[in-house]
Amino acid sequence: MSQNPPDLRPDLAPRAVLPTDARPGQPRIGMVSLGCPKALVDSERILTRLRAEGYAISPDYAGAEAVIVNTCGFLDSAKAESLDAIGEALRENGRVIVTGCLGAEPDYITGAHPKVLAVTGPHQYEQVLDAVHAAVPPAPDPFVDLLPARGVSLTPRHFSYLKISEGCNHKCKFCIIPDMRGRLQSRPAKAVLREAEKLVEAGVRELLVISQDTSAYGTDWKDRAGAGSHIVDLARGLGSLGAWVRLHYVYPYPFVRDLVPLMADGLILSYLDVPFQHAHPDTLKRMARPAHAEKTLDRIAEWRGICPDITLRSTFIVGYPGETEAEFQTLLDWLDEAQLDRVGAFRYENVAGARSNALPDHVPEDVKEDRFARFMEKAQAISAAKLAAKVGTRLEVIVDSIDGDGATCRTKADAPEIDGNLFIDEGFQGLTPGDIVSVDVDEASEYDLWGRLVP
């Protein structure tokens, strides 16, 4: 059983679990899926379309007739990782199709890897399919090629990511996502709810709602009546399906307050993933983000007043250009006051095309490392204290996996991969992944809990 967090980069999706079934002679395509959960959803959609056309999915390079690499371009380090993955696929297989966020820069990819078969941008599903058709013609057999009810999933059967929109209207100076994925485009509520219903019918016990800006859902529609309340309406609909509903990437707009009563009533999980990024007003202004840290603390207090057991997760950037020691200390002090439950951090990196590259007074790498370590030490201490307070309580958990040592589970306060685990190491033999059970907590560490099944 592994203990979280295995990595402190909060932009990473869970590891993909590829299906391996295939009939004799069926054309096979491999998939390497990099980046965030939103990219993982794109990979699932591509593979679902391919399965519907008669392709099988190969879990390795050797068994594939071509390989799709779904890339990430969020940070320069992520771009380098994507280029490395493309290079590996070319060495191991030789026939590679590139898609995803880094695909918005085709010359960058072909400059490093001129032998790739095709390059497409993010969520360009039709172009990916065209490239696959050209490389490996389909050979469907409608009598045996049955598509699973929930489509092809790259996550365990009991949880699934539910993407409700594409793009983003924010203009943060450190981010190029709007350039790669465009402006906000919300999916119709009926389509989202129908997808969610099909997932739940297929056995999904937890829906992880994702987008670039979840709280802005629906504000791009031409009919602006009720703008600002669309995510509340959607959350209410999702909460009626009987699964756990977890909201990610929720910007702290004032109307987020309207979501919290749904959490207090148990309709959706009392969990908010809010990308605060920093706390000092000058740093936030240089980021081109709302510079109201004091109001943010007031909102946190208001949310906790409505729903005392709410779990707050966030990510922050340390070492942003111009960040002084005093500004960083303000962030640490703010974290002390906010007492967030789950915290991740980035060391600032330049990204080609980001406006923050041109800002003056870039922070030296050794200072970034020092601040990152100090920030995470503070966050870890807060997490340890909060988890210690849960010892002696009874919690509802969902089982993720089981091995010879025990069951790895998550509480309602923990998202897959990025938050902590709860481990059961006695009496777990009758459990299966996806079970939701009650546990008495008897031990805690900085990030994880241990407990005993309630008879």
Automatic annotation (TrEMBL):
Residues 154-385 form the Radical SAM core domain. It is found in: Cytoplasm. It catalyses: L-aspartate(89)-[ribosomal protein uS12]-hydrogen + (sulfur carrier)-SH + AH2 + 2 S-adenosyl-L-methionine = 3-methylsulfanyl-L-aspartate(89)-[ribosomal protein uS12]-hydrogen + (sulfur carrier)-H + 5'-deoxyadenosine + L-methionine + A + S-adenosyl-L-homocysteine + 2 H(+). GO terms for molecular function: 4 iron, 4 sulfur cluster binding; aspartic acid methylthiotransferase activity; metal ion binding; protein methylthiotransferase activity. GO terms for biological process: tRNA modification. It holds the Pfam family TRAM_2. Residues 27-137 form the MTTase N-terminal domain. Binds 2 [4Fe-4S] clusters. One cluster is coordinated with 3 cysteines and an exchangeable S-adenosyl-L-methionine. SUPFAM superfamilies: Radical SAM enzymes. SMART domains: Elp3 (SM00729). Catalyzes the methylthiolation of an aspartic acid residue of ribosomal protein uS12. Belongs to the methylthiotransferase family. RimO subfamily. This is Ribosomal protein uS12 methylthiotransferase RimO.
